[in-house]
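Q: Trace token order:
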Amino acid sequence: MRVGLDIDGVLCDHVAGLCEWIKHKYDISLKPDMVTEWDLNFGPSSVARELEIAYCDDAFVKSLPTLDGAQAAVTSLSSLSGVTLCAVTSRDPATQSCTRQWLDVHFASLPLVYSKTKADVSLNVLVDDYPPLIKQCVDAGVTGILLVRPWNVADIDGLVDNPGVRVAGGWSEVCSVIGALCDA
């Protein structure tokens, strides 16, 4: 079973890093749990716009923290028989070098796949935080695990009735779902 793990919002706590960026740049204290919509406007800019700018800074990308539980979960999932993991991202390909460097520090064993359309990647399962990508993958026959994050809570109800979608509140639930899929 090939399992794709999204980077931003799944392996990487990019919003925590972005909140620090915004504090430094604008002296605005924004906390990750306050980002309840992806393009949250915070006055002089928006989360999506600032992330686009920040990703042009290699130092920003390399400094991003991992999401709580991600490293232990990847280690655990890597030990499951028949499971092959890869990091899948739709980041701008210009970030490939610094993204690979970030992965080498935090998840050295993960191959990196760049794809604007994750549904086109040969996967059996995708763990992601972005509901439209989960929906695209499920429509393509891939099991989607939506990792709950503050910015996707409002979209969960539209996905839970789909039998190809699982919702996980954290990494321990992701591991349980993938373990159950292995046993099925």
The CA atoms of residues 106 and 148 lie 21 Å apart.
